[in-house]
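Appendix B.2, paired examples.
Example (i):
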Amino acid sequence: MYPFSFTKVSDTRAAVNAGRAGGRYIAGGTTLVDLMRETVERPETLVDISDLPLGEISVTGRGGLRIGALVRMADAAAHPKVRATYPVISQALELSASAQLRNMATIGGNIMQRTRCTYFRDVTAACNKREPGSGCAALEGYNRTHAILGTSTDCVATHPSDVAVAFAALEATVHLLGPDGARSIPFADFLLRPGSTPNREQALRKGELITAVEVPALPRPLKSGYLKVRDRQSYEFALTSAAVALHIRGGVIREAKVAAGGVGTVPWKLSAVEKHLVGERPSSRLWAAAAEHAAAGARPLQHNRFKVELLTRTVERQLRIVGGTK
């Protein structure tokens, strides 16, 4: 670990000023500290924001949720309103990590976490995300866990967050505060696909701080859930996952929100699946037909071709679980 300075702030203005001066924000530190130990991250200054008043969950509008950036994962998962209105969020959080990590890690930190690509974490390997222009060792290396959607010739690393998949499906908004004031950005635009600049992972401006993630109110009744497929049952990263939310009224699907994890460079919104569902009546045949669109545009690598079929089956299974079968 390289030397660094440390400062603690108690109000958002002080935090933004410290961030503008080049400080890196830290709260739970469950990802950043690991990366510093491995010398992947080398911040000169850490800014502890854990005392900022960003730890509340509130109901907005006609039933939406605003989740403060410093809400602990465990607290968000257990919150009565989250569990009652958007169980897909609770389930994604509970499947994300061990209880110890969920008690430390924050919502803001979770969506900011960096990839679990082995080559990214190996400072001797070529990685454009870590060192722009150095190449991508995963392209010709062992790439079983890597992305099949949203990849580029510069990066094929997946985004590791589970709850980010739920936020993508629900079309959440990220609220930010920076030197130029407050602004909001759709979750779909917050996490960036690698393109030719994989080192730039979020649409953050210098000094900006995440203050909250807001989930919009969706029509009721709403059924939702999260399914995670992994190599082992206990706290492993997803090979594939599916977040599904369905509004069914009068026996017809009125709204469908579907996204996948473990297969994309960012949480992957499955718009083609959603389009196939809306206006139709739930049935086993519908779930299978809609799921066939899940891997559209996939570009599998040598060792992860299995993810195409696995994604299709995962989405179909979760549609059955959430929507029921006939």
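Example (ii):
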Amino acid sequence: MFLHFFNSILIISIVLAVLSLPISAVESSIQVWPKPRTFSWPQPQATLLSSTFSISAPNQTHIHLSSAIKRYLNLIQTENHIPLVPPILNFTTSTPPLQTLLVFVSDLTAPLHHNVNESYTLTIPTRGPANLTAETVWGAMRGLETFSQLVWGDPLRVAVGLYIWDAPLFGHRGVMLDTSRNYYPVEDILRTIGAVSVNKMNVFHWHITDSHSFPLLVPSEPDLAAKGSYGPDMLYTPDDVNKIVQFGLDHGVRIIPEIDSPGQ
């Protein structure tokens, strides 16, 4: 009851705060989430996104970066997001459509670890290709998320004449899911990790086991899961764990497992 009351008060407060703003303050800019540390758009403009728009990382090969580029290109081309409050800006078809986003990463070998450099710079000029530069692959993923939020409409439009530099304030940004007290299917876990990624968080703390249940199938000790899980269809196999870890890496999210053995 208290939580419901608190949520209601919070929503009302947010609505009142937005309504109290001048119309120009609400409508004049595109909202990027989370708010970048540097956002420069001196003359809000937009142009069409080319029907042949592409994202490429010239001469740079990285399995997780390639996966992210493919994912974001598909998202950009299919979502056709319509903003709740359309931005007020100068839109003209005389500006050529944006054809390409070029991605450049300085260090392709940096692993995803605590306090890894996730900074990036995104420049979208009024003419020519857009450029995303990052120190690491993980920073490039944050920049791809930002770029995707700057595309909207049908036909697709993209903000131009824009410069963004961003870096997280905290090295650890994440959520925890307890699958001991409540079992969640693998697809639900993947969907949660995806949500963590689009919010530019980087940690999925997976509290796998506890005294309530032991859903992790350990091949060397199969009785732990056979006798400790809620049921034979509520287990995480080694293949499931590998799938979750790889999915996390593709989305720039570290999987931190927590295993209580035995839980008391």
